[in-house]
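User: I'm writing a tutorial on reading structure tokens. Could you give me a worked example: one chain, its sequence, then its tokens, then a sentence or two explaining what the tokens reveal?
Assistant: Sure. Here is the example chain.
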Amino acid sequence: MGLTNKKHRKPIIHSDFRPLYHFSYCSSPPMASSPNSASNFQNPNKKKTLGLIANGLKRKDSFIQFFVMSGIFLLSLRSLGQKYRLHDLQEDTAYLKEEQKSLYDRMNHIKGSLIHEASLDSTGLFASRLRLLFGDD
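And here are its predicted structure tokens:
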């Protein structure tokens, strides 16, 4: 049996869905007996909530607008990511071009140093071998 009001000795029912107490005779329709504490008392005036699909069918326009706006937002995020990816690729390309120029300059420096060393050789064998390797005639 539920709680009782000490002053009037009438049963009080605790609602499981709100932190409220109700007199059993105030419910609509009035309760003949109070429910036991193990059972769930539900307010008979409470409206049932719609499920996701039923709510979507009831408010089609709002759901369609929501999904379209979500799609537009995701596409804009994707294009923003691609913009920064392109910027990074341009930076990488510039760095690789600088690296290529640096390697080309180092290769020419090494080639010039080897040819200079070969020219100091009195036999000319080393110089002829280097010309053959480098393709210089």
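What the tokens reveal: The first strand starts at residue 3 and ends at 4. The helical segments are 52-58, 60-120, 125-134.
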